[in-house]
Amino acid sequence: FRPIVVPAGVELKIMLSCDARNTAWVSFDGRKRQEICHGDSITITTSCFPVPSICFRDPVNDWFESLAQCLHWNVRKKQNYLSSEDE
Is 85 helix (H, G, I), strand (E, B) or coil? Predict the structure, then answer.
């Protein structure tokens, strides 16, 4: 799972390399996988109809904080203590 984040107004075109030996698979939002074959392309753009939202501070800061929380950025899981048997 490799999330990517792009600013508004960006258009992405995803294609399989012409010298690729095999097909590729993609999934969006972790849903049903889709195969990309030679000659196929996927174009991804932002919606013409943005989702309205209520901001606590400002739109940019709130967006990044929400994204960081969803993707678990800067989160470290608590590790177990070393037992005396390990020494």
Answer: helix
SS3 59: helix
3-state helix, strand, coil in the chain (%, to 5): 20, 15, 65
Any idea what the Cα angle at residue 54 is, between residues 29 and 51, rounded to 5°? 40
Residue 44 phi, psi dihedral angles, 5° rounding: -120, 125
Q: What is the pTM of this model?
A: 0.50
- Report helix, strand or coil for 44: strand
Read off the DSSP letter of residue 12: E
Per-residue confidence in pLDDT tens, the chain, 87 aa: 566 777 777 888 999 998 999 999 988 777 889 999 999 999 988 877 777 778 888 878 888 888 888 888 888 888 888 877 655
CB atoms within 10 A of CB 32: 7
